[in-house]
Design brief:
Layout (H helix, E strand, L loop, with lengths): L6 E2 L8 E3 H8 L3 H9 L6 E3 L2 E5 L3 E2 L4 E2 L3 H10 L4 H8 L10 H4 L5 H12 L1
Parallel strand pairs: 1-3
Antiparallel strand pairs: 2-4, 3-4, 5-6
Helix pairs in contact: 1-2, 3-6
């Protein structure tokens, strides 16, 4: 089995991360399944202070799921040639036209707009 993919910490220190064990609790799946989600690029992780973590905003704790649209968004950007670090920077960069960040907009009515912008960037 391959190692768990993670990026360098390119995020602001204020971005809240969940360790993989905590992600497995939120999603109610084994930690091995979370690791597979990372390998399948349904989620992205960064290593902060030598510990892999997933941005908390990628999860919908109310429903115990990955935020709707995130796996497809990641697939579009990866297929468009973007590396994980570039994707993370874009997702957490303030965008006054949304408002907020694309990662935050995935939780609301602007999810389709974020995906549309990603598609435009990727091609």
């Amino acid at each position: 089995m391959s190692t768990i993919p993670y990026s360098d910490d390119v995020l602001d220190p204020s971005v809240s991360l969940l360790q993989l064990a905590d992600v497995s609790k939120v999603l109610e799946v084994p930690k091995a399944r979370v690791e597979q989600m990372l390998r399948d690029r349904q989620l992205l992780a960064i290593k902060r202070n030598r510990v892999p973590g997933v941005p908390e905003v990628f999860l919908d704790a109310r429903n115990g799921q990955i935020v709707k649209g995130l796996p497809g968004l990641l697939a579009v950007l990866h297929d468009g040639g973007y590396q994980d670090e570039e994707i993370l920077k874009w997702l957490f960069e303030e965008d006054p036209s949304l408002p907020g960040t694309p990662a935050e907009a995935l939780h609301g009515d602007l999810m389709r707009e974020v995906i549309r912008r990603a598609q435009a960037m990727a091609f």
